[in-house]
Amino acid sequence: MFFAPTVLGLGRAGARAAVLCCSAGNYYNQGEIRKKELEQSCFLLGIPASDVTVIDHRDLPDNPAVEWDTQLLAAFVLKHIEANNINLVVTFDAAGVSGHANHISLYTALRYLHSEQKLPEGCRVLVLESVNLFRKYISVLDVPLSCLLPRDALFVLTEEETEQARRAMRCHRSQLLWFRHIYMLFSRYMMINSLRLL
């Protein structure tokens, strides 16, 4: 939903992605459906289902108001990093793009692993920049501003890649409420990701 420009940009550079989704997405009792949708979406972004891991743990509920336990989440994340020999982690920043508590919890867990020096040597963390509502929905018009503002990485999709990202987003059929259609048309996150190193 938010990371397609980074996934496609890193793929363009020859990187292999290993996706970790820390919730089955069961907020509306649709966990199994959402897992399949995630795998389909990732496939369209060049990530095979074998490289998609979904955690379904009772203490990590899909809930926009629930902050996950930092230690538990950090343990799952670190295990995934080590098992897949990951040298670059991409996650949310402290605002979680949409303010979703689960997203913010991911940032908190990665910040903990980073600050406690528990990440493998050479493993870096990029966090996706959360922007204000105006910038979030000005689509391609945010490109010049994103290019001018400080950041450590910037991924801007071509028109063809943006359509690929939209096709991937459409795989999440159970989540395509009216406002997500607006998101697909106007959100900068469908074509632009600006990131900072942790």
Structure description:
With 198 residues, the chain is of the alpha/beta class. It has helices at residues 4-12, 31-44, 70-83, 96-99, 101-115, 133-136, 143-148, 159-170, 178-186; strands at 19-21, 52-54, 88-92, 124-128, 153-156, 192-197. The strands form 2 sheets. A 4-stranded mixed beta sheet has the order 3-4-6-5, with helices on both faces. Strand 1, helix 2 and strand 2 (52-54) form a beta-alpha-beta unit. Helix 2 runs antiparallel to helix 8 (159-170) and helix 3 packs across helix 5 (101-115). The longest helix has 15 residues, at 101-115. The protein is globular.
Strand and helix order: HEHEHEHHEHHEHHE
Shape: globular
Radius of gyration: 16 Å
Class from helix and strand fractions = alpha/beta
TL;DR of this structure?
It contains 9 helices and 6 strands. The chain has helices at 4-12, 31-44, 70-83, 96-99, 101-115, 133-136, 143-148, 159-170, 178-186; strands at 19-21, 52-54, 88-92, 124-128, 153-156, 192-197.
Features:
9 helices; alpha/beta; 198 residues; two-stranded parallel sheet; single chain
Topology (SSEs and partners):
Layout (H helix, E strand, L loop, with lengths): L3 H9 L6 E3 L9 H14 L7 E3 L15 H14 L4 E5 L3 H4 L1 H15 L8 E5 L4 H4 L6 H6 L4 E4 L2 H12 L7 H9 L5 E6 L1
Parallel strand pairs: 1-2, 3-4
Antiparallel strand pairs: 4-6, 5-6
Helix pairs in contact: 2-8, 3-5
